[in-house]
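Budget justification, computational time. The allocation requested in the original proposal was used primarily to generate structure tokens for proteins on the priority list. As evidence of use, we reproduce two of the resulting records. The first is shown immediately below.
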Amino acid sequence: MTSFKSEFLNIMHERGFYNQCTNEQGFDEYLAECEKKGTPAVGYLGSDPTGDSLHVGHIVPLMMLRWFQKCGHKPLTLVGGATARIGDPSGKDKLRPFLDEATLQHNVQGLKKSFMKFLKFGDGKTDALMVDNYDWFKNINYLEFLRDIGTCYSVNRMLTMDSVKSRLEREQPMSFLEFNYMLLQGYDFCVLLQKYGCRAQIAGADQWGNIVSGTELGRRRYDTELFGFTSPIITDSAGKKMGKSEGNAVWINEDKLPSYNYFQYFRNIGDAEVGKCLRIFTDLPMDEVRRLEALQDKEINEAKKILAFEATKICRGEAEAKAALETATKTFEKGTIGDDLPTATASKDGVGVLDAFLALGFVASKGEARRLIKQAGLKLNDKVITDENYIITTKDQLEGNIKLSQGKKKHGLLILK
């Protein structure tokens, strides 16, 4: 087993977070020295406010930053109020839509809410800080930027970066605006170095090119070695990126997704993913992770419950995790209806069964609902629905409840008012 001098890199390697590092030995020695002296290293994670919540796919680098803080270091969360106005071309086929000022500010507050679930913010030496790159870009002089920063970049080198290269290979137009993104993110890194002594950037593997642009700028412009550290893109056994469920994002913020749904996402993880998810999405000690991932057959369900509970506890708090677990236990094990199931409302005069499932978010369209009915995949009060034109009314209430189910794992309540 690989052994590092620093506690942080040992944890990253053991738990499966380690993908690439710009200078593994140098980063390890830098962190170990900081840990020995009790002086926090400073590292940052950036996210453009193109939405008002992060989702499960964003949690991997966020959990890395959480461990960074647990090891006695100081995390910075950067929201790209400036770069969101341009758009990161990484993995994109076209220019990102422009957002108005009100939307950007709304999204920034949403991202702050997401970050605060995983990190401790405050004024302490290891407390997290949130910064916005619009603060230093809004009044920047374009000619000075070109002279001071643009001269440090080689277009030949930029064209070899995956974010640019893959776009050009697909013959998709790439605007000069997007081509600038790499310079802006590199400049962010150096501003954080100057303002906060930040020497590390933590991100997902798709940000490697942008990270390297920052480390190279730090060396050329400020004669300082900066470090980039990335996590792998987490996929399931089918090779699909984690973070989506039935085509919908599994949101971190509770106003975007009920805690029960968040719990159920992890409860329904495939058997092959349990160990990986326990390592990455929970704080459980590795001895306990190894014990749980060794469980077989029906016992693996116990590991999934613990995974779902621990992941929900970090993101939504212990009370919400307990409520979700209790609802799942009632619904799946006791044959009753849990108190915290997803709900939808409809008129007491009645609602079509297709509209009811659409309102709950269990299907993306009426066409999908029709297909599931033909496959005996939808149930009303635990009875298979056979009539796609059925109207649900108050006569379907059982003890005041109407239970709708898709398959064996998705349940919700319909309330008629």
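The second record produced under the same allocation is shown here.
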Amino acid sequence: MSTSILRTADAWWVATPSGAAKVDTRATTTGQLLADRQAIAAAAASTATVPTGSLTLHSPVTAPCRLVAQMTNFASHVEEAGMNPAAVPLTFFRKSSGSISGPHDEVIRPAHVRLLDYEVEIGLVIGREMPVGTAVTAGDLHHYVAGLVVTNDISARDLQLPKTQFYESKSYPTFTPVGPALVLLDADELKRFSDLRLRLWVNGELRQDMTVADMIYQPLQALQALTRFQRLDAGDLLLTGTPVGTALSAPPKPIEILASLLPPAIKWKLFFDRQAKNPRYLQDGDVIEAGVATDDGAIDLGTQRTVVRHAR
């Protein structure tokens, strides 16, 4: 049975049917908390609770940690970008864990960024040490993936695309809202990963809505590839990609072909002038809601709500 972990400024909590029960632990990081399963179990059984709505929630994944993400990992998103899902390799990029923010914190758009985009994603929270060379199998995946979180991979597209690198464009403070809960899953629940549905709304308009069945490389494949070269530890976070529906749109094929004949500076100017007319990019005051759950509600990671603010 899943256990939903919440975090406030000075405490950890377990969400129960009657409210939130405080975890009696000295843990200050997600990794330390995951090692204190006895304290989590005691809180889950406690009747001493407070209203969950009275808590000011922080990200249940603490920084610093390793924050890794899979690139173009949903078939619908790949097709939207004008590519062939069958030809897309399993690739990763890093984000700064300084970009992690809470599930209700404001998303701050830097003053020099014009095109701010959203990407609802499922985050895998690592549950134990995974040195380089760790062999992960379907049978022991649940030993390494402690639980799941809702994440939003906020992206500055006008920095990302012409520089052909992701680190800066996705690493500004508040560019990775996480939570509201870290949902710990058992082996049987983790087997339902493909049943999870990702949804994202902007100002009440549903922009993204897709199940994990659309995912190209599942967690087992991702961790098998990642641990060939990257150490992971308890509390680290792996983002698993986003489905169709982001603001970024690929140009029609004829325009793309013509643009390829132009000098890079002119090509990118034309592309971004066209993108600037797209009203789907995030604006000051926009309200983003992102949630992940199975359609039957058996597994529910919760819904985060953040508001976009422009830096002055």
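A brief technical remark on that second record: The radius of gyration is 20 Å.
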